[in-house]
Amino acid sequence: MAGAVARFVKKYGKDDIWYRISLVVIPVSGVLIVLGQKKLASIREEKKLLDARFDQLKARGIIREQ
Fold this sequence. Notes:
Transmembrane segments: 17-35
Distance between the termini: 61 Å
Strand content: under 5%
Largest sheet: none
Structural class: mainly alpha
Number of domains: 1
Keywords: Membrane, Transmembrane, Transmembrane helix
Shape: rod-shaped
Number of strands: 0
């Protein structure tokens, strides 16, 4: 594996490799941020539904706050 990396560096040059990596990393990071925001939004929505369910159970007297 190290030999393959060394041949790649020798063929393209050190600066070109960092440029190529940055071209891949930036869009991937953007996608991960968007996916994380969507997951966070779904967790917040689930929390709202759970809180509403607890409020409903408290109103019916099934559970009590301690």
